Amino acid sequence: MSQGGTIPVVVRSATTVSRDVRQLQFSRRDGQRLPPFTPGAHIDLHLAPGLIRQYSLCGAVEDDALYTVAVKLEPQSRGGSRAVHERLKPGTELDISLPRNNFPIDLDASHSILIAGGIGITPLLCMARALVQKGGSFKLHYFSRSAEHAAFLDVLQGAGFAGQTEPHFEQNHEETAASLKQALDAPRPGAQLYLCGPRAFMDLVCNVASERGWPKASVHLEYFNAGQQAPATSESELRVTLARTGITVAVPPGATIVDVLRAAGVDVDTSCEQGVCGTCITRVLDGIPEHRDLFLTEDEKARGDCMALCVSRAVTPHLVLDL
Ligand code: FES
To answer: Can you give the CATH number for the domain in which 72 is found?
Structure first.
């Protein structure tokens, strides 16, 4: 392990697993075993200086020789998925973080329903592998534009998964809603629901789950693309004062607080820079943040005493931070 808590790895394989999705496998450069992880975990890939992206691990948890991720090339890529697709080849060396899990699964639940939208399949595939291994009761619903776009279909149609996977391809909004109503009808006592996909899809699943009587505590979700969550509000310049040093900076529209603080020589710890991981959460001493992250809970956001500096801005024209 390096001093920064990263693991030096090498790309062992890079293969296309569906239209626009590339699967990568990494092993340690020193040939040692990789740290264990649990289903739903992700790792950071350090793709270039200042370019760190998070991807769910989708291989088997018992494989301590290889970590597997799958990355969709996003047309709106800010560098992450493009770098993965264009630069990572067998033999490429890079650093990754230790696995972290913000999306754990209860493998002992009476029944689990896994709902994937597109590349949101990756953490759910890992969960499904673990459930098959344990003999757990589950059903995986896989929504995708088409079979051609659906990564890992061959795995999901293979031994152990076949009777427990239901694909839903080429559906319009109404058809998707109807499929979800059927999938989420009459929740069994103790059943748990796990979902991952684009924000609009997840919103739809949550609405249907709520209509069908799923308790909130039984619904677990992870967004795969935080870039979709930033609201398109009009922005004006924001002043930010750092209480410990007295420095005040102006954050222009379109810039992030992190960008501006860095340019002013202030070191801010970050990882995802997409409002997902929580690394940059900072105490707010004055002013009201406008939260754009996916990390803080609704209660924490309502309290307004901390914020994610990598994506959030402010309702008030001035913020004072505990930095
Ligand atoms: S760096 Fe991950 S939430 Fe800000």
So the answer is: 2.40.30.10
Q: Ligand 1, closest atom to CA 271?
A: 1
* Ligand 1 centroid distance, CA of 274 (Å): 6
**Residue 30 structural domain:** 6-97
Task: Report which protein residue has its CA nearest ligand 1's atom 3.
Answer: 275
On whether the CB atoms of residues 261 and 268 are closer than 8 A, the answer is yes
Q: Is the pLDDT of residue 11 over 50?
A: yes
Determine the distance separating the centroid of ligand 1 and the alpha carbon of 272, expressed in angstroms. 5
Could you tell me the distance, in angstroms and rounded to a whole number, from the CA of residue 10 to the centre of ligand 1?
25
Domain shared by 242 and 223, yes or no: no
Q: Which residues make Cβ contacts (< 8 Å) with residue 69, sequence separation at least 6?
A: 23, 24, 26, 43, 45, 55, 56, 57, 58, 122
Q: What confidence tier does 3 reach under pLDDT thresholds 50, 70, 90? A: very low
Position 4 confidence tier, pLDDT thresholds 50, 70, 90 = very low
One domain, residues 163 and 249: no
Residue 102: inside a domain? no
Check pLDDT > 60 for residue 226. no
Q: Which atom of ligand 1 is nearest to the CA of 276?
A: 3
Distance CA(202)–CA(123), nearest Å, equals: 15
Nearest atom in ligand 1 to 310's CA: 4
Q: According to the model, what pLDDT value does residue 78 have?
A: 60
Separation of CA 158 and ligand 1 centre (Å): 37
308 Cβ closer than 6 Å to some ligand 1 atom: yes
Domain count, the chain: 3
Rounded to the nearest angstrom, the distance between the alpha carbon of 237 and the centre of ligand 1 is 21
Computed over every residue of the chain, the mean pLDDT equals 88
Alpha-carbon span 132 to 178, nearest angstrom: 27
Extended strands (E) in 98-234? 112-117, 138-144, 165-169, 192-197, 219-223
